[in-house]
From TrEMBL:
This is Heptaprenylglyceryl phosphate synthase. GO terms for molecular function: transferase activity. InterPro entries: GGGP/HepGP_synthase_I, GGGP/HepGP_synthase_sf, GGGP_HepGP_synthase. The gene is pcrB. Its EC number is 2.5.1.n9. Pathway: Membrane lipid metabolism; glycerophospholipid metabolism. NCBIfam families: GGGP-family, PRK04169.1-1, PRK04169.1-3. Prenyltransferase that catalyzes in vivo the transfer of the heptaprenyl moiety of heptaprenyl pyrophosphate (HepPP; 35 carbon atoms) to the C3 hydroxyl of sn-glycerol-1-phosphate (G1P), producing heptaprenylglyceryl phosphate (HepGP). This reaction is an ether-bond-formation step in the biosynthesis of archaea-type G1P-based membrane lipids found in Bacillales. Keywords: Lipid biosynthesis, Lipid metabolism, Magnesium, Metal-binding, Phospholipid biosynthesis, Phospholipid metabolism, Transferase. The keyword Nucleotidyltransferase does not apply.
Length: 227
C-alpha cells in the first residue's frame, strides 16, 4: 500500500448517489491510489456503511472517509479526512464541526489515520460553496490560504475544490509555488485524460468524482493518463 505522499490519483464516491456493482468494481480495480467516500448533502451513516461494505466485499483499495458531518463517523476506513473550509464565512465549517467530532469520537479515532485538509472552495454555484457559506476568494486570497495551511496551521493537505467545474490551471500552479511540505490536492470538473494531465502538472493529487456518474469510461482513463 502506497504512502499518502506517493499518491497521484483519487476517485471520490458520493454515498448519496447510485453506482452499479459493475461500475464500482471498475473503479476499485482501476489502479487509483485511493477512494474517498464523501459528499455535501443527503449524507447518512447507512449510506456510508453500505458503500464501504460493497467496496470491502471484494477489493483492497485504500478507503478514506471525508468527515463533513460527525454523524457519519464509523470505524472501518483506512484514513479519515477532516475538511476545514478556510474561505467559509461561518466559523463552524472551519473549526466547530471538527471540534465536536474530536470531542465525541476521539476514543474511536486513531490519529495516525486522520488528516486535516485546508479546503478552499472556488465554485460559487456549487452546493458545497453555498452549504458552507463561503465567499469567493481572488488569486491572492487563495495563495494566502495555501501559505496559512502550511505555515500557520501545519496541515498535511491543501485542497483546491472547484466542485463540479473545471478550474484554472494557472491558479493551481501559483498555489503550488506557495507549498513546500503540504500536499496540494485538486478536485473539480476533471472529465477526461487531457484535463487530468493538465492539473496533475501542478497538483500532487487529482480527485475525480462527478464523471464517475456521467462518463465512467472517461473517468477510468484519468488514472492511466497521469501514471
Amino acid at each position: 500500500m502506497k504512502k499518502i505522499n506517493e499518491w497521484k490519483h483519487i476517485f471520490k464516491l458520493d454515498p448519496a448517489k447510485e453506482i452499479s456493482d459493475e461500475h464500482l468494481d471498475l473503479i476499485c480495480e482501476s489502479g487509483t491510489d485511493a477512494i474517498i467516500v464523501g459528499g455535501t448533502d443527503n449524507m447518512t451513516l447507512d449510506g456510508v456503511l453500505d458503500l464501504l461494505s460493497r467496496i470491502r466485499r471484494s477489493h483492497t483499495v485504500t478507503c478514506i472517509l471525508e468527515v463533513s458531518e460527525e454523524e457519519i463517523l464509523t470505524p472501518g476506513f483506512d484514513h479519515y479526512f477532516v475538511p476545514m473550509v478556510l474561505n467559509s464565512k461561518d466559523k463552524k465549517f472551519m473549526m466547530d464541526i471538527q471540534h465536536k467530532a474530536i470531542k465525541e469520537y476521539i476514543d474511536m479515532m486513531e490519529f495516525s489515520e486522520v488528516f486535516f485538509e485546508g479546503y478552499c472552495i472556488l465554485n460559487e454555484d456549487s452546493k458545497a460553496f453555498k452549504h458552507t457559506n463561503s465567499f469567493l476568494p481572488d488569486a491572492g486570497d487563495v495563495k494566502a490560504y495555501a501559505y496559512m495551511a502550511e505555515h500557520v496551521f501545519h496541515l498535511p493537505i491543501f485542497y483546491v475544490e472547484y466542485s463540479g467545474t473545471y478550474g484554472d490551471p494557472k491558479l493551481v500552479e501559483e498555489v503550488k509555488e506557495e507549498l513546500d511540505n503540504t500536499m496540494l490536492f485538486y478536485g473539480g470538473g476533471i472529465e477526461n485524460s487531457m484535463q487530468a494531465q493538465e492539473m496533475k502538472e501542478h497538483a500532487d493529487v487529482i480527485i475525480v468524482g462527478n464523471s464517475i456518474y456521467t462518463d465512467i469510461k472517461s473517468a477510468l482513463k484519468t488514472v492511466k493518463a497521469i501514471n
